[in-house]
What does this fold into?
Amino acid sequence: MAITHIKRYNALPRKNVSAAVTAVAMLFCIALLIFHEPGNDEAEAWLIARNASYRDMIFLIPHYEGHIPLICLTYSIPAKLNLPFKPSVEFLHLVTDFAAIFVLEFKAPFRNTTLTLLPFTYFFMQTEVLCRPYMLLALALFLAASLHEKRNAHPVRYCAVLALMCVTHLFGIAIAGSIAIAWIIELITKERKTSPFTAIRNNIKILLSMTALLVFALSMISLIIPARDILLGASTDIFQYMKTLLKIILFLPSEITFTSFIDPAVLIRNVVLTPLEAAVSSVISVAVWSSFIVYAVRRKKLIQAVLPVVFFALAGAYYMLFHHYAVLYFLGVYIMWILEEGDEAQHGYLNYLLLSFSLVMALMWSSVSCYTEISSDYSDGAGLDRWIEVNSLEDCSFLSGWDVQSPYIISSAYFVNSLNACAGREVCYNLIDGRTYPFLQNEDRHSCDDNIRRWSSYGAPDFIVTVNGEENLKLMLDRLGISDNDYVLVYCNVSKVFYKMTYVKSGIMVWMRSDLAGKIDLNESLDDYNEIYGI
It folds into this structure.
């Protein structure tokens, strides 16, 4: 009976189904964005756009952030006009969401059932909510897939889409490069019986388009070459790199389709699975790889299907967090798209089985994540800003916590960025150079001590904001030379960053100088104290 209904649904007019799904998906995006509290990375891009010069935004900060400055440049228009943070970034993000969903729904060669479910699956939902450039990368992938069959006839248009891919992320550059190389291989194979001069003459427009793309991609890479004094979050050890690459190959295909074994709080290079989890992930991943490869061979598009995944893995082994897994998911949609185009495709039983179960799992993950997103704060900043405003504490001095025991100082960006952005003013400053946005820059011990002495000269702050702890507070007070001043806890909040069926929990605490206790009447909020400490 269910199969009969699915067949009937697949027989419905494609345009009608696509229009309805696009409308519902956009309502779904809007509803989630209303509840979403922008996190660190989302807020940091806004703070850079608002407070940094265009020169620094393009030529300095990307060397520390590792991100191509497109999103900051886009945000700079509303940010420098002093428009409110959350509505501005979410409106711009919603435009990208709509464009990506529209192209998918009206251009992809999938059946109605697949097109109906895809925008509501977990990795779509995650990317639709987070105001980062990953949905723009998905849009570029979908546009590239829609132009794939016509790329030889329209090379300028196709290379322009690949250029769009390059301005989204390092992963976008890697994937665009792999697509271009696969294209070159295909052209060489096709023209192998022709003389080199004739081959060039026949493809001069393609050659010029690719040359322009190469120059553009290299210019984007030049913007994100790590600075010498960057606090690098990636490993440069070759053996560690190879181990991480192996983890991506054996674990990630399973992780984006069926399993949820990886701890989202760690980098992919630090992932540790139990022997059973590793075995299950490896078996499923091999099945996924086999399915893709067999189908790609049957469709005579092995290079076009495999090369983008290889380049993604090579880039991802350098640095990857759980929110980057969505890129591989969208890349999988792209590959299935180009394999489906053209003559009537024959999936095979294994492909249908994997796709069906993967969609079911992705919808289940999405449902639980939606509940987490709606029922709890994704980030602490907006809640803390509301508390400051309710208690009229705007003129008080707030010191943000930092990593006391490390040889460098970096403010707790996961609440400082979102607090400063949501507040529309600088509530907490980064200890280094007083910037409103911390970026990853190494400081020697002497420079760190100078920064701490500068903060000590300001006297005991009215409030200190720490992440998860009294021990951190005591260490901070000792370093500042104000350990005799007592501070009392006046605010707690727990945030939950969703990931499939679970979440990453963090908490912030606000401590007030005890001598202010009788002068400032607070509406205390300490309900989350036990949850922060896991009681």
